[in-house]
Predict the structure.
Amino acid sequence: MADERLPDPELLRQGGFRLATRLFAPGDLRGTERQVRRLREHAQAEDPLADAVVAMIDELPAGEGRRLFERALLNGIDSLDDPPPALTDFFRDVEATPYWADQERIERGARAIARTGILGLFPLGDMSLMGGYLASRATKALVGTGAIERTASRRLVETANWWIDVTTPGALRLGAHGYASALRVRLVHAHVRAAMNRRPDWDYAAWDRPVNQVQTVGTLLLFSLVYVLGMQLLGVRYTDRERADIIHLWRYVGWLMGVDEEILPATEGDAWRLLWLLATTEFIPDDDSKRLAAALLASHAQVGAGRGAVGKVLSHVSVRVHSSISRLVLGKSNADFLGLPNDPIAQGLVLAAAATNFAAETVRQWVPGATVLQELIGDAGRRRYAERLGKIFRVDTTYARHMRTESQPAA
């Protein structure tokens, strides 16, 4: 019985995921009970190297450990005289680039992502983040840090900024800003994990280890395969090589962030099979899922804040468009559970825009030089957008605020 294929999970039987599975999945994805059990073992695994660095930071005088981390991050571990063993172990590991990492492929993957400009932010927020809220065990650490409603907009902006950092061409080379962003967020995860492990009410039986390996690779899958699927559903056309290179880029990001290589997808087929396993075991929404979804919708509404009557219209349109994209991908029952508005007119407009994108993308593929030009335009648009976000929200790319995370009592 342990080797018999299991039935498809609900997530893949409705909405855009159902369509994408039929159009793009490489055959029968169904896993077995034995494979489910093996994946679930990783839900009890954390990140010993990063956790040891956080313990070191807590032991040293205030600010000293973080200063040493930043110096090693930007200049390499060999730039430090007699660094603490935990810091040496961490950076010796991340600086020893794995044999399979191919910088040419990583660059091509980054260019393919950058080509779509700020359009890529739609699947990031409406599919990856909103869809991720359906995984209720993964949301417990986020809820546990408190102040969800007050920080939803900032979290969305910081996530977008981080995503742009790690997907910018050239950014994942040692010491570059995307490389630094990946390792800083890995340290944020370790700080959050330490805070959640101090909570007397953390339910390990129900919620697994906080910010565990399965949750981390699941988040990266939302940014890789689910992102690609979302872009395709919005009319963007990727070649087989582009999709493979995007998966490769995120495989390297996952490695930098401490994910066990056993569960890091090496191919698009691997990513699909992992999605099936995660949909089967992790996508179990609860009331915290609703709360996070409501906070994300409220952040979309803020686009019109302080603009009077015009602002109210902008807020209404923003919420309806973002909700429509989420509904089309996540399916009716998931969208209804999360409390997403159901606007058939907005959904029709999204589908019309997707058809327009598909037509434009078809032309791009046939016009010599159009793809390179679009890569330059898209990358420039993303950079300007990131700069604008940084000025409005004063984004701290060192994530120092998150390094001071404290746990909040359970509701």
